Amino acid sequence: MYQLIKNEGTARRGRFETVHGIVQTPAFMNVGTSAAIKGGISSYDLVDLKCQVELCNTYHLHVRPGDELIRRLGGLHKFMGWERPILTDSGGFQVFSLAKLRKIDEEGVTFSSHVDGKRIFMSPEISMQIQSNLGSTIAMAFDECVENPSTREYSARSCARTTRWLIRCKEEMARLNSLSETINPYQMLFGINQGCVYDDLRIEHMKEIAELDLDGYAIGGLAVGEPAEDMYRIISSVEPHMPANKPRYLMGVGTPGNIIEAVSRGVDLFDCVMPSRNARHGHLNTWSGIRNIMNAKYAEDLSPIDPDCGCPTCQRHSRAYLRHLFKANELLAMRLAVMHNLYFYNTLMERIREALDNGTFKEFHDQYVELLDTRI
C-alpha cells in the first residue's frame, strides 16, 4: 500500500508498505542481479549502507542456480540473507538485450541462454511462476522491450502486446498467490509503461494499464541511449496519467542528476547498475562531483574519498590507500569503492526525502542537479 505524504510541485514524498517492510520514498533500489551486489557486498553490508530495497534478476536466477532450487531452499530472502523488500524484474529486458537469437510471438519469447546457448521459452505466465518461486516482494510484469529508436508502427504493436501480456501476468499472479504452497502469497505486481519515444503512445498505454489497478507502475524502455531531454519529456508526459495512489518506478536510471530531475517530475523508485559499476572502475560519487581515484594526484592524499561522507570506507581509509588497492588489482579496492557509491546513492535519496519533508526540494535540486554529475 502506498501513502502519498506530501507534494512539492510534482515531486512526491511517500511511504510504501510491503509484507517485508516499509519503504520510504523516493528510494533507490540497489541492484544485486544474481542475488549479490557485484564488488563483494553482502546483504548484511547493505543494511549498514542504508539500502531499503534490493533488486534481483528473474532471468539470471532462472538460468543459475535455478528458481526451483531457490524455492526448495525457502525463497530468495532466506537464500541471500536479506529480510527487507526485494523487487525482481521480469527478465524481459535481458531477453531482448542479451539474446542474439530470439523469436517473439503472442505466446512469449523463445531465445538462447547467454550462459550455455540452451533454448529457453519465456512467457508472462512463466515469468510470474519464476518470480513466485523466488518469493520476491514485488514482481515486474513481463513486457516487450523494443529497440530505441523503433518505428512508430512497431512501437504501437508492441504496446498492445505488452498490455495483453500484462493482463495474463495479473491473472497468473492471482492464481499463484491463492495457492497454499506459495512462498509469498502477498507478492505485488507492477506493470510497465512502454511506447519508445512517442509521447502519444506512452500516454495511451499508461491510461490502458492504469485501469488494471495494479500495485505499482513503472516507466520502461528509457535510459537505453536516448538523450536525457527525451527521457525527462516522456516522464512529464506520462506522469499525469499515472495513478497518484500507487508507487512510480523509473527503470534503469541513473546518474544522481537524472534521479533528482526525475524526482522533480513525480517518480518514487529508481534502480541502476551505475553506482556499483562505476565504483569498480574507480569512479566515485561525492557531494562535490565525480572523483576518479586513479588520478596520480591522489597517490599521497590522506583525505577520505569525500569529507562529507559517513560511509565505512570514508570513515576508515584514505584516497591514497584506495588508489593503491586499484593499482595493485586488489579485490578490496572494488569492495570499498562499491560500499562508498551505494552509501552515497542511498544518502542522496535520504537527503531528497528530507528536503521534501522540509519543503526545500527546489533549493536542493538547484544546488546539486548539475554538480553531482560533474567530474572533479
Automatic annotation (TrEMBL):
Report the residue ranges that make up the tRNA-guanine(15) transglycosylase-like domain in this protein. Answer: 11-370
Cofactor remark from the record: Binds 1 zinc ion per subunit.
The Swiss-Prot or TrEMBL record annotates one GO molecular function as: tRNA-guanosine(34) queuine transglycosylase activity
Q: Which InterPro entries match?
A: ArchSynthase1/Queuine_TRR, TGT, TGT-like_sf, tRNA_ribo_trans-like
Pfam families in the record, alphabetically? TGT
Q: Which cofactor does it need?
A: Zn(2+)
Q: Give the metabolic or biological pathway.
A: tRNA modification; tRNA-queuosine biosynthesis
Q: Which Gene3D superfamilies match?
A: Queuine tRNA-ribosyltransferase-like
Annotated positions binding Zn(2+): C309, C311, C314, H340
Q: Which residues form the active site?
A: D89, D271
Q: Does the keyword Protein biosynthesis apply?
A: no
What family is it from?
Answer: Belongs to the queuine tRNA-ribosyltransferase family.
Per its record, how is this protein called by name?
Queuine tRNA-ribosyltransferase
Q: Which organism is it from?
A: Fumia xinanensis
Gene for this chain: tgt
